[in-house]
Amino acid sequence: MQTLEPLQVGIMFWAGRDPWETVRELKSLGVSSGQMGLSGDLNLHGLAAAWKSALEAEKFTVVTVFCAYNGEDYADIPTVQRTVGFIPPATRAEREQRTLEASDFAAELGVNSIACHIGFVPEDKSHPDYVAVRDMVRRICDHAARNGQTFALETGQEPAPVLLEFLRDCNRENLKINFDPANMVLYGSGDPIEAVSLLAPYIISVHCKDGTWPPKDKPGALGEEKPLGKGDVDIPRFIGKLKELGYRGTLNIEREGQTPEAWRRDVAMAVELLTRLRAE
Ligand code: MG
């Protein structure tokens, strides 16, 4: 793995396609690092070796391995609450197992951070879901620690103070945050710039994503994801705030739900925007 520069611009991508083709496409967009997502149905058997050779040959660094799970659905807020992360009791055991496998997969690649959306954390500490999820996070942290890794929670589905309290309660040194400013906006969880200040000591990586606030006339609806710089996050202010807070990690462009052509166009524009902002 190559040494990363502070605020190095990278791209969040998915591991489902040919490793060589994927890495070359990412590099053609002007980056040499990123975060790798594993969809829930991706067969991990033998996959690490193929990725390892492509990453090493192309000198491409994976900063984080992100874990997604079978059965997750991001249609609207109630659906996310019902299906995403560690909250649904029926899939908890299988998702815990999958996360441990993702940690081992990342270790084979030499990646020292794993991450996922754990879903909406309940505020009530005595709620059975809260207790079960907290204990599950602790077990995953302990497994990740044995692999020399941090375990980062993706932000956005709950207000920053709730997440902060949860992190403290989990009480694991390698438990961190992958901060996604757009999720704060899309889920209506609060001002991302305020949240980033509050959560700063825990932030190990960030997503650079943009979006609009949820529509006021449709309860439960999510806001709409937008190309970077075109939503309500205020990306220049976000990057400025990260610099002010002394953040030295990477900036990872995340763009979802697009055709390959639109994805490429939007990501290319985002690389240009972030390259300019980090130099300012
Ligand atoms: Mg994200």
Sequence-ordered SSE layout with sheet pairings:
Blueprint lengths: L8 E6 L4 H10 L4 E6 L8 H11 L3 E7 L9 H7 L8 H18 L3 E4 L11 H19 L3 E5 L5 H11 L4 E5 L1 H6 L5 H8 L3 E6 L1 E2 L13 E2 L8 H10 L6 E3 L6 H20 L1
Parallel strand pairs: 1-2, 1-10, 2-3, 3-4, 4-5, 5-6, 6-7, 7-10
Antiparallel strand pairs: 8-9
Helix pairs in contact: 2-4, 4-5, 8-9
The protein binds magnesium ion (MG).
- Compounds present? magnesium ion
In one word, what is the shape? globular
Give the strand order of the largest sheet, numbering strands 1, 2, ... along the chain. 1-2-3-4-5-6-7-10
- Quaternary structure classification: single chain
Q: The CATH topology, please?
A: TIM Barrel
The top level CATH class name: Alpha Beta
Give a structural overview.
The chain has 10 helices and 10 strands. 43% of the residues lie in helices and 16% in strands. The protein has an 8-stranded parallel barrel, surrounded by 4 helices. A two-stranded antiparallel ribbon has the order 8-9. The mean pLDDT is 96. It has one domain: Divalent-metal-dependent TIM barrel enzymes (TIM Barrel), CATH 3.20.20. α6 (160-170) links the parallel β5 (150-154) and β6. It has helices at residues 19-28, 47-57, 77-83, 92-109, 128-146, 160-170, 181-186, 192-199, 235-244, 260-279, and strands at residues 9-14, 33-38, 61-67, 113-116, 150-154, 175-179, 203-208, 210-211, 225-226, 251-253. The longest helix is centred in the last third of the chain and has 20 residues, at 260-279. With 280 residues, it is of the alpha/beta class. α2 (47-57) packs parallel to α4, α4 packs parallel to α5 (128-146) and α8 (192-199) runs parallel beside α9. It starts with 8 loop residues before the first strand and ends with a helix. It binds magnesium ion.
